[in-house]
Amino acid sequence: MLNIKPTHHKISDTVRRIILVLVFVIVASVVIGYAGGYRLNFNNFSIEATGAISLSGSDTALTVKLNDRTVGASLPVYLNDLKPNQSYSISVQKDGYTKWSRTVTVLPNMVANFGPILLFRLEQAPIASTTADVTSWCKSNTPFGKQLVIDNSDIRIQKDFVTRVSAPVVNACWFNDGFHIAYATADEIHVIDNDGYNDVTVVTATTPIQQMGVNTKDSEIDYFDGTNWYKLNI
């Protein structure tokens, strides 16, 4: 009987090195792509770039939701690995405070930045204050040089429309953060995002408002009704 032994082929050192290099290149490409925000779309087996949403701020004890799913309990929040070209609803809520919300379409390789996010206490009563230097507090120019323009009941940033209200606007002032605008009508003070979203009423006055301003730390709004000064802590 023939005793046939199996034949063994030894892999050469050169082939082994080539295999190791190929494995390294593949793994490195996957790691770099993942770190760069690229993901495999299993629906069509293509590589696509993801997007992100960033919310800045310093508030705590709140709830951040993305499409009704809780994703944070404090600010700031950074949400990455989001599928591109899709619409996302995001909100920031806190008991006893106004709600902030937006709907945004995430773009590939882009971060949608919002903030700093400010929430305002509900049913907060203004308190009596001493005379404030509202002239210097009410800034019509941002650090970026964008001018606020009041045209009766319209507010614009230079030529860009922000909002139109039902009553004539007394004055409008930038917050120092460049993201918020405070504006006053005869009987109300509002704060609004600089792109016209999240318009909230922070003061309802019993006598006509004549002057209004935001202090340099964005921590209070002062206003004058012709007789008295009042302060609202933010």
Would you kindly provide a written description of the structure presented here, covering whatever features stand out?
This protein is mainly β and 234 residues long. Helices cover 12% and strands 41% of the residues. The protein is built from 2 helices and 20 strands. It has helices at residues 13-35, 134-137, and strands at 38-41, 46-49, 51-55, 63-66, 69-72, 77-82, 86-93, 100-106, 111-114, 127-129, 148-151, 154-157, 160-164, 171-174, 180-184, 188-193, 200-204, 211-214, 220-224, 229-233. It has a 4-stranded antiparallel β-sheet with strand order 5-4-7-8, with no helix packed on it. It has a 4-stranded antiparallel β-sheet with strand order 10-20-19-18. β15 (180-184) and β16 form a beta hairpin. The termini are far apart.
| Poorly predicted segments | 27-36
The total strand number stands at 20
Return the average pLDDT rounded to an integer. Answer: 83
> Regarding quaternary structure, how should these chains be classified?
single chain
**Number of contiguous helices:** 2
| Spatial extent as radius of gyration | 28 Å
Order of helices and strands: HEEEEEEEEEEHEEEEEEEEEE
Q: In order across it, which strands form the biggest sheet?
A: 5-4-7-8
What is the percentage of strand-forming residues?
35-45%
Shape: elongated
Derived from helix and strand composition plus strand pairing, the structural class reads mainly beta
Q: Termini, distance in Å?
A: 98 Å
Report the major sheet. 4 strands, antiparallel
Give the helix level as a range of percent: 10-25%
